[in-house]
Amino acid sequence: MTVKRSSWALPYLIFLILFVALPLVMIAVYAFRNPQTGAFTLENFAKFFSTPHDLNTFLYSIQVAFINTLLCLLIAYPAAWILSKSSFNRSKITVMLFILPMWINMLIRTLATVALFDFLKMPLGEGALYFGMVYNFLPFMIYPIYNSLEKLDNSYVEAAQDLGATPWKVFWKVTVPLSLPGVWSGVLMVFMPTISTFAIAELLTLNKVKLFGTTIQENINNGFWNYGSALALIMLLIIGLTTLISDEDSARDSEKGGLI
Predict the structure, then answer these.
(1) What predicted TM-score, i.e. pTM, was given to this entire model?
(2) pLDDT in tens, 107-151
(3) Would 17 be classed as within a structural domain?
(4) How far apart are CA 27 and CA 229, in angstroms?
């Protein structure tokens, strides 16, 4: 009896249905239901847009995510560029050192950051929040950019140099455009989780700073499943939209050959 290749995909299909598709369907169902009558309603979404506190928290979370992503990019790009120019063995070891913290649970890393600030007698607050965000998400920015730079075809750089381009022009006109797919991947991997996180903000600000993830968690924990699901769905839609725009930009860059 021969087993079809497609049969091996069955466990993955079951996993996707149970732990990805089904929870998403449940979120959508709860989001559009009235908590009292169970009837279809848009009240949960209207409540979000008419609640200044939740709306301001959402906008503040986008601001924090934007600043965190920018800080990670400013640190990660030079680091990834230097690593891509290093000798093979040394660069691989250094990249491994950057990735090593990802093997430890994010909550444990955040608690270690709290202990570090406590040891240095530094106050917890917004500054500590940004420090913890960058510390936790920096590897997610470095690795995709490093990957793009590592695979960059050096003949483009050599051609630009042969045509008389200065090192600065070679960097901005050749290296940066060709590494944009890695940059977009890194931005997506940092920006989206930052909006939805709540543990980092709670621990590093002693719950003084609230992000959108905290708002969702509080509503779910307090039994407001319908409103919490509506908030989660709004966040999911924004994540999907951002991913779609990012994919379109990456495809456009690929069609242009990645050069300006």
Answers:
(1) 0.83
(2) 899 999 999 999 999 999 999 999 999 999 999 999 899 989 988
(3) no
(4) 5
For residue 220, tell me if it sits in a domain: yes
Least confident of 32-36, 79-83, 89-93, 177-181: 89-93
Domain range for 36 is 24-255
Q: Structural domain tally of the chain? A: 1
Element (H, E) at 134: helix 126-150
What is the number of alpha carbons within 13 Å of residue 232 lying toward its C-beta?
21
Residue 191 token pair:
């920006």
Q: Are 215 and 54 in contact (CB under 8 A)?
A: yes
Calculate Rg over the CA atoms of the chain: 22
Enter the tokens of residue 158.
Answer: 């050599």
User: 19 lies in a domain?
Assistant: no
CB-side exposure of 205: number of CA atoms within 13 Å?
A: 18
List the one residue out of 243, 240, 199 whose CA is nearest residue 27. Answer: 240
